[in-house]
Amino acid sequence: MGSRCKTVVRKLCECTVWVVVAFVVVGVDASSVQAHPLAPSLLEMREQVDGVYTVRWKTPNLRAPGVELEPRLPARCLAITEKSAEVLATSLEERWRVDCGAQGMDGSTLGISGLDRSRTNALIRVVFADGRVAKGLIPSDATEFQVVAGRGVARSYLKLGFEHIALGPDHLLFIMGLLLLIVGTRKLLGAITAFTLGHSLTLGFAIFDLIHVPQQWVEVGIAISLVVVALELVRRDQRVRSLLREHPWFASFGFGLLHGLGFAGALREAGLPSDEIPSALLFFNLGIEAGQLAFIAVMLGIIASLRKTPVRRVWVDRVSAYAIGSLAVFWMLERGAALF
User: Fold this and answer.
1) Distances (CA, A) of 277 to 84, 153, 171, 287
2) For the residues 250-261, what does the mean pLDDT come to?
3) How far, in Å, CA of 60 to CA of 67, rounded?
4) Which residues are within 8 A (CB) of 289 and not within 5 positions of it... i.e. 6 or more apart?
5) Beta partners for 57?
């Protein structure tokens, strides 16, 4: 009688998991799931003479539907030239000049209209005539930024990196697949370390223009890496050797190189000045690592808790594989179609 009850409970748990996955994969419009958080906007003001600034406003072409972003300058900053617009491959860039009077911008407040509805951030950079610089980030849950000369870049890019990995489901799904696929603490640590090393290398190479790979092809490749992980998870014959199971560090290093190119796309869109690239790259990557470690800690806790339930591990692997694989195939087809 006791064994029959356990069987019933196990089946109920398995059905519950399947219902949740069916809701996520079928009930939710996959096109609404962004593979990456939207790239940040950039508001840059450069002082030419006392109180006169050249404004550069750069917004990504890909943005939340129905949301228009506009910078909010102090009321005393009056436009003295018409806006000129340039349509780039991935963004729209506008430039104009304003006169902010003798007070200038130091200590003033800047804002971005529509940012709270855009699911993205805005980078702020104000360069004064005497060489001082104020830099920072307005997150989507904030409305204003106070211009303070000398404010550093570290915190802004650290947060940008953390949010990029935390809000990028394709990268997180790949990590989740590794956690479920690899058996043994040593192999798992080696695979995660190799993935980190791989994406750190290509992130740096891409930002310094040492390698050039079209971003559209990178996105397709990332989707394919998820398909490979999903197929490996769903494979029933564990005795068949594969690179991911036998040498996970080697495979994850290769996929890390690919994902690093994806990370580089977000940082490049920020329009970094050459003198800020090293520090921005360092703190952006540290932010990615912090977000990655936080996700791993949460996932390990969930996996440990599942071991205490009647749900069998094989069902966890299958459900995860179908969820990851369904989204990955959709992204692969969607991104592939955009190439033509």
Assistant:
1) 27, 10, 23, 15
2) 85
3) 12
4) 161, 196
5) 43, 94
